């Protein structure tokens, strides 16, 4: 810099590009802080830590609870149905290898049917040659991500650390201040809220949060089933009180997710194992809710569609309509968690951004919750990397905006359709039952339309 | 611009002792301006979003002509080892972007206020590899012996009084083989309708009177100036602004805005 020596006022003689300007000598400063170490928070940390363009950034993940120890003696009750997009994210992060070595259930076929009629829809290849989703315990997903995160040097994780306050800057060149329970204060250029549906960061952002309480709970349990050979089908039956789903864990066990009103859920929780097992079988098999008129019409249409489809080229799983397995016994105890719908109008603020359930919460009936969250992870990482590659501040609101519009464009339709399905199947009113049954049968017979929807739901 | 020179040079000598005599009202004044310059949603938001388009253009352009002197420059610092001059840098919106990419950037601007804001901002965010100077290109070029790998005049030539001299001095600051980048507005009917009527009067994207259409330089004029200065045109692209999305895009037509990359003949 010899030539600049006369610029005493404005030139800065310290020039060393290797020195990371934003991390130098500020130990309580991090380039990025992620609040919340759930599946989505850990995936975010891994994804950012693996991005070459962020190689010189210091990243911190804050989690309020203890480090979770993975228990493999029994199946964890909370499971996720990962779509191909989520699986490829986990693969790229190296986490899928751990899951593969441990355990997961492949879904090669999905069958969804209406308790009020026989209308059903199936997804997947007829010869069961292709996996369409993967059932993995949430704890295992998280543990696998944690293992990979340990290998990434520039990402630090602090457990048992509660955030008591976030202070967001008014100007773009100020920093976010994060106050912890012990009174210490951290600063960051970008705070990412992965702190779940009760997100503290969302409350700080003061965005409008549109929420809806389903007044429902999901009862979960691990079930031993009487499946003859391969257990590779995910079953979901829409009851007027809510959907009941069996998700395959392995050939012997399936995971139950039974959404129902709170009172029923509480009574189900108190039932002894054998009675609870009977209730599940009833919910899967009984015909009490059946509407004979709809049944009749629906069957005729079904026959008609079959005739029309003679020339159909694609062999689809809908050709073979299976009967659901019956449940032999429940392993361990049943548990329940509340269900709700929520959507933050803004995912972003000055140097702050929400991902996963902090931004959007959906009914589990389509298994989209964590998949939307992982989609956020990919999109936010892309936006941050684009900012860095363009020489912008990695917390630049120009790029965060890009993330927000990308994700809202994707998340809102999914949320609306999931909520719509919930409303559509929450009724026993004959005209609606008729309409949805016919609709479902027609939908099932149109393989191209169906594969379009499957694809839309898988990225 | 030459007129301004005389008023600036005495300031420069005075500035040497300014470092320790910053008074509070000055700081407040500059902080106020800084928030305007650096507000990505403020009056200069179009310039901020232009960075998305122009920074990769400059970065790739520089790297396409020369190899970095820094061995294994990491992906995070693709411009490490390059000396870049940002002429008419304003408060450093582009200068900082180039600095973050690793370049050793000098930003010059005739407005002392702009440079003050730029300097404070870079200092505040602890960006060390950018330097600023309140100066004109002609004076800077005469006083300064350093030659640059790249000289960038982005959205500047349409504001200067003597573009021939301006580009000549830009070119003289370049190393042989170095890259000259210019982004500016074309003087066509289309640019008059869009930039003056559209941007300034209808959409209020930029303050009225920001641009003087008569000062815009046509492509023909530009290429002849480049020729005179031994600069060979390497790349020419048109671009346009969508005020509804605050987004810039490359387009085929160079009638409204054009970005060019030329290299100084060895």
Q: Over the alpha carbons, how many angstroms does the gyration radius of chain A reach?
A: 25 Å
Rg over C-alpha atoms of chain B, rounded to the nearest angstrom: 18 Å
Major β-sheet profile of chain B: 8 strands, mixed
Total helices of chain B: the number is 9
Please count the beta strands of chain A (DSSP E, at least 2 residues each): 19
The share of residues in helices of chain A is 25-40%
Uncertain ranges of chain A: 1-25, 310-318
Low-confidence stretches of chain B: 1-27
CATH topology-level name of chain A:
FAD/NAD(P)-binding domain
Largest interface: A-B, 37 and 53 residues
Question: What best-fitting shape of chain A do the alpha-carbon axes yield?
Answer: globular
Count of extended strands of chain B:
8
- Overall residue-averaged pLDDT value of chain A: 85
The CATH superfamily of chain A bears the name FAD/NAD(P)-binding domain
Distance between the termini of chain B: 30 Å
**From the coordinates shown, what is the CATH architecture of chain A?**
3-Layer(bba) Sandwich
Please identify the top-level CATH class of chain A.
Alpha Beta
Element pattern of chain B in H and E = HHHEHEHEHEHEHHEEE
Main location (chain A): mitochondrion
Subcellular location (chain A): Mitochondrion inner membrane
Enzyme class (chain A): oxidoreductase
Organism (chain A): Daphnia pulex
Blueprint (SSEs and pairs):
The complex is a heterodimer of chains A (459) and B (266).
Chain A: E1 29-35, H1 39-50, E2 59-62, E3 79-82, H2 84-92, H3 95-102, E4 105-107, E5 109-114, E6 120-123, E7 133-137, H4 138-150, E8 155-158, E9 163-167, E10 176-180, E11 185-193, H5 200-205, E12 209-225, E13 233-239, E14 242-248, E15 253-261, H6 262-270, H7 273-285, H8 292-308, E16 327-344, E17 348-349, E18 352-354, E19 360-361, H9 369-389, H10 397-424, H11 430-445, H12 447-456
Parallel strand pairs in A: 1-2, 1-11, 2-8, 5-13, 11-18
Antiparallel strand pairs in A: 3-7, 4-7, 5-6, 9-10, 10-11, 12-15, 12-16, 13-14, 14-15, 16-19, 17-18
Helix pairs in contact in A: 1-4, 1-9, 3-4, 8-11, 9-10
Chain B: H1 2-15, H2 24-37, H3 45-65, E1 83-87, H4 93-100, E2 104-109, H5 112-124, E3 130-134, H6 137-143, E4 148-154, H7 163-172, E5 174-185, H8 189-202, H9 219-228, E6 231-242, E7 247-251, E8 257-264
Parallel strand pairs in B: 1-2, 1-4, 2-3, 4-5
Antiparallel strand pairs in B: 5-8, 6-7, 6-8
Helix pairs in contact in B: 2-5, 3-4
């Amino acid at each position: 810099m010899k030539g600049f020596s006369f610029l005493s006022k404005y030139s800065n003689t310290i020039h060393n590009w290797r020195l990371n300007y934003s991390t130098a000598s500020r130990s309580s400063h991090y380039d990025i802080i992620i609040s919340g170490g759930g599946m989505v928070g850990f995936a975010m940390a891994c994804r950012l830590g693996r991005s070459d363009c962020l190689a010189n950034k210091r990243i911190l993940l804050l989690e309020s609870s203890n480090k979770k120890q993975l228990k493999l003696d029994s199946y964890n009750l909370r499971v996720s149905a990962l779509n191909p997009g989520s699986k490829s994210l986990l693969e790229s992060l190296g986490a899928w290898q751990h899951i593969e070595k441990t355990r997961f259930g492949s879904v090669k076929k999905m069958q969804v049917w209406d308790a009020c009629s026989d209308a059903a829809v199936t997804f997947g290849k007829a010869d069961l040659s292709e996996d369409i989703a993967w059932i993995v315990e949430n704890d295992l997903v998280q543990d696998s991500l944690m293992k990979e995160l340990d290998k990434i040097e520039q990402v630090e994780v602090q457990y048992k650390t509660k955030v008591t306050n976030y202070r967001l800057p008014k100007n773009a060149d100020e920093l976010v201040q994060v106050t912890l329970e012990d009174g210490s204060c951290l600063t960051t250029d970008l705070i990412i809220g992965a702190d779940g549906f009760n997100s503290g960061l969302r409350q700080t952002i003061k965005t409008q949060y549109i929420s809806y309480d389903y007044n429902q709970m999901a009862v979960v349990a691990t079930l031993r089933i009487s499946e003859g050979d391969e257990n590779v089908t995910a079953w979901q039956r829409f009851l007027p009180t809510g959907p009941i789903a069996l998700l395959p864990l392995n050939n012997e066990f399936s995971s139950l997710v039974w959404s129902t009103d709170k009172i029923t859920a509480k009574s189900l929780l108190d039932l002894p194992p054998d009675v609870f097992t009977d209730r599940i079988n009833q919910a899967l098999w009984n015909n009490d809710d059946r509407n004979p008129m709809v049944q009749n019409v629906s069957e005729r249409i079904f026959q008609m569609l079959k005739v029309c489809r003679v020339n159909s080229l694609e062999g689809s799983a809908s050709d073979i309509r299976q009967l659901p397995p019956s449940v032999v016994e429940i392993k361990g105890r049943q548990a329940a968690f509340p269900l709700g719908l929520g959507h933050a109008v803004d995912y972003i603020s000055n140097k702050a951004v929400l991902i996963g359930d902090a931004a959007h919460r959906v009914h589990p009936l389509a298994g989209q919750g964590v998949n939307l969250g992982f989609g956020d992870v990919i999109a936010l990482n892309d936006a941050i990397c684009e900012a860095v590659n363009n020489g912008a501040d990695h917390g630049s609101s120009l790029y965060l905006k890009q993330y927000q519009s990308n994700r809202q464009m994707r998340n809102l339709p999914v949320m609306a359709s999931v909520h719509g399905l919930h409303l559509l199947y929450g009724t026993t009113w004959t005209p609606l039952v008729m309409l949805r049954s016919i609709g479902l049968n027609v939908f099932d017979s149109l393989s191209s339309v169906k594969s379009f929807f499957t694809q839309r739901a898988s990225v | 611009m030459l007129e301004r020179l005389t008023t600036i040079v005495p300031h420069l000598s005075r500035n040497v002792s300014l470092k320790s005599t910053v008074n509070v009202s000055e700081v407040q004044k500059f902080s106020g301006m800084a928030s305007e310059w650096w507000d990505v949603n403020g009056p200069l938001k179009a310039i901020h979003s232009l960075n998305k388009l122009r920074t990769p253009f400059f970065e790739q352009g520089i790297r396409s002509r020369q190899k970095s002197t820094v061995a294994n420059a990491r992906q995070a610092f693709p411009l490490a080892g390059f000396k870049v001059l940002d002429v008419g840098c304003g408060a450093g919106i582009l200068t900082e972007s180039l600095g973050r990419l690793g370049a050793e950037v000098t930003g010059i601007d005739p407005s002392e206020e702009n440079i003050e804001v730029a300097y404070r901002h870079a200092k505040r965010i602890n960006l060390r590899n950018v330097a600023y100077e309140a100066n004109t290109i002609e004076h800077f070029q005469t006083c300064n012996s350093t030659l640059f790998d790249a000289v960038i005049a982005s959205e500047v030539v349409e504001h200067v009084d003597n573009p021939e001299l301006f580009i000549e001095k830009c070119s003289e600051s370049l190393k042989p083989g170095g890259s000259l980048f210019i982004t500016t507005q074309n003087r066509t009917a289309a640019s008059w309708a869009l930039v003056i009527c559209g941007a300034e009067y209808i959409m209020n994207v930029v303050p009225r009177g920001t641009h003087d259409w008569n000062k815009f330089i046509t492509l023909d004029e530009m290429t002849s100036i480049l020729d005179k200065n031994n600069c060979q045109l390497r790349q020419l692209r048109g671009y346009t602004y969508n005020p509804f999305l605050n987004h810039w895009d490359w387009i085929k037509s160079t009638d409204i805005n054009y970005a060019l990359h030329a290299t100084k003949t060895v």
